[in-house]
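Input.
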Amino acid sequence: MKKQALKIGFNKLCTAKAMTLLYEENFKTVSKYVHATSRGHEAIQIALGMQLLPQDYAFPYYRDDAMLLAIGMQPYDLMLQLLAKKEDPFSGGRTYYSHPSLKDDDKPKIPHQSSATGMQTIPATGVAMGMQYLDKQGLENPITKSSSSKENPITICSLGDASVTEGEIAEAFQMAALKQMPILYLVQDNGWDISANEAETRAQNAYEYAQGFKGLEAISIDGANFIESYEALEKVIKTIRKERRPFLVHAKVPLLNHHTSGVRMEWYRDDLEEARSRDPYPVLKQQLLDNGFTEDEIKNIESEAEQKVKTDFEKALQAQDPGPEDLFTHDLAPTPIVEELGERSPARVDGEKVVMVDCALFAVEELMKKHKECLLYGQDVGGRLGGVFREAATLAQKFGDDRVFNTPIQEAFIVGSTVGMSAVGLKPIVEVQFADYIWPGLNQLFTEVSRSCYLSNGKWPVSMILRVPIGAYGSGGPYHSSSVESVITNIRGIKIAYPSNGADLKGLLKAAYYDPNPVVILEHKGLYWSKVPGTKGATSIEPSEDYVLPFGKANVLQEIWKQENEETVTIVSYGMGVHWAMNASKGLRSKVEVIDLRTLAPLDEATVMTSVKKTGKCLVVTEEPSNNSFARALAGKIQEECFTYLDAPVMTIGSENLPAIPLNSTLETTMIPSTEKIKNKLIALLEY
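Output.
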């Protein structure tokens, strides 16, 4: 190993160690915000960080401050985050110490990752999948195209051994091995979760676990030995850059500081003396001596590092805190789609309308023809079937198996991988087969996808589309019929559409594609082919290719002009509820205004409130059980905003408040709303 590399490595280790000691000396000051440090893990982290290039993507974790120093971050940068300062380069004071997100031209790219242990593994694997896709399609990553190095990029995912027991880690390893992606999983094994040790919590370590994934090569090393770590990683990284396949490096390290500043090691550790005997600091110091460095040279490196840390800390203490106004920035990235454009109903000789599922299919096909960075994946969307609702029919044949492909039954991977795909400049359209199966994906949707823009201070919005077939149709039973919008709308940082017809679905899909934010599109299965009686209104003249419909613009589907002293009502709904509302209002045309929300987030409150203030009464229709629902919350908002205009309480109607929709058709009909049920509620409200 070159002496210069040893010197740099020792400097970074001394710096990381000095930071840990300084934080302990100033515990009352720095413990306001919880932090963890790399003490004991420094050698392996620095050995890796020193070998990363600007075109690489890294997912360091909350104990990886030494790795961050090794890629070129300064102690001052890290301390700004430690103290939650305004100029924190990662998050602007929004998230914990050593939770990086970085987009500097001269450093590896670091998308945002949360504090939820192990959850970064799927987004990191998504980056590797994106790198592979770019290679196959001959595309350039727009984020790293300025890099002067011609080396192939790789992805690095750092995680602790305890997190390898999680199911989502298995999903990531499975896909990396299956698809042979260019990723290095660095597992730092210190033998502890928090207070639970390895004997209590795992049947095998990560190296042993990796043997079960055919195609994932693994090695185990002493991560406290800098030279061994550097040379082992050098070989692995060279192989990944050349052969484009995954590796796992299991590095055994001691934990020489607290789990976090809030969970002190002396409370539960019984192995501290043994751990201290494996300290990487004296090992690396001896390696310098063995390679010709003098005691004085070593002391100079130590003292320079200590002084740098002290100076940066004093400077960081004086840095400005965020102001109240800083709370409200970067929750979403600005979208270019702000108005309806293109022809919604182009003139056709035959005047033929198309069903809703085909409007979506045509929209995706047009996008894929125009944009090579657009791809589609999920369960059963590939060439053999084209989706269980035929919503992807013919797409794999037209665009190839690399652009339209099946995934395993891995909702977490399907959703979370979009973080990584987006981070390399791609636009993934993914599917969860039924809304009932979205639950395994919610962890990634909430923890990683929705918060990335806000917690990276605007650097890493996740540009993706998640399509979700939803709702009761044709006796689907308890696991193919659920409505989940109340849960989804409680996730901030995403946009949500729930269209009632094909033209809206196509326009919203197009708008979602050009939106830099994550978008969930809920598509009612009963409207796909308009086979349910009373849903012919879901068919549409197919809009033009350039048709876009902005989010947050409700449609006054049926407008009225109220006469003085006339009893009138506004029905607010979305999806299937719009068709129930329109059918229920037959014979009451002059009394009922119907608003189709089209999108649930953002929500067009202005259109709703204007209508209710005009009519004086309101009924919110949903397919969900109404208790604790989005609809009930909207009704409360309407009541709050329009109270002085109301002639009756704002009412809601939804499914019966029961745990699931039964399979039997009679029970299903009894469970969910219908035109008749809504008409009875409507008449009662008009007569109130």
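The CA atoms of residues 473 and 526 lie 5 Å apart.
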